[in-house]
Design brief:
The chain has about 130 residues and is of the alpha+beta class. The protein folds into two domains: about 5-65; about 70-134, no CATH class. Helix content is about 40%, strand content about 25%. It has four helices and eight strands. The chain has helices spanning about 5-15, 25-40, 45-65, 120, and strands at about 65-75, 75-80, 85, 95, 100-105, 110-115, 125, 130-134. A three-stranded antiparallel beta sheet has the order 3-2-7. It has a three-stranded antiparallel beta sheet with strand order 4-5-6, with no helix packed on it. Strand 4 (about 95) and strand 5 (about 100-105) form a beta hairpin. The termini are far apart. Bound molecules: zinc ion. Zinc ion binds near residues 78, 80, 96 and 101. The site of zinc ion has 9 residues, from loops.
């Protein structure tokens, strides 16, 4: 692995783990950081992999806990008319001005309607959510 590949892999991992950091104790975060340092410093592939799997394990342990995803924003942008529509409560059904896409579900679930085909052809998802303790 080149230095660049190494950093790119780390970027992906940190992005995936980032939202779990607030739920880690100081001690766990210290261990986690040490594993990342080992990964960065080491030239040994096996050691690198071991360091990363330890990081994964820390995150797995948190995921196994009482965390749930809470929707904080339920919105999409229509790629045809560029409207941004947001559903703010459970039965708040919103349609864009060209009527191609709509959202519903508020902060309870993400409901989308769009013409046949891949959703990414019709809208850009602007939803946000955060992890909270159950
Ligand atoms: Zn539209």
């Amino acid at each position: 692995m080149s230095k660049k590949e190494k950093l790119l892999l780390l970027k992906d991992i940190l992005e995936a783990h980032f939202e779990y950091f607030p739920f880690m104790s100081e001690e766990k975060l210290t261990d986690y950081t040490e594993c990342i340092q080992t990964y960065l410093k080491s030239e040994d592939r096996i050691l690198q992999e071991a360091a990363l799997s330890t990081c994964q394990l820390f995150i797995q342990n948190i995921k196994g806990g009482d965390l749930v995803r809470k929707i904080t924003k339920n919105a999409i942008r229509c790629l045809s008319c560029r409207d941004i529509i947001e559903s703010k409560s459970i039965h708040d059904f919103k349609t864009c001005s060209c009527c191609k896409v709509s959202v519903d579900g508020g902060h309870d679930y993400l409901q989308r309607s769009y013409p046949p085909g891949d959703p990414s052809e019709w809208y850009e998802d602007l939803s946000e959510w955060q992890l909270v303790q159950k």
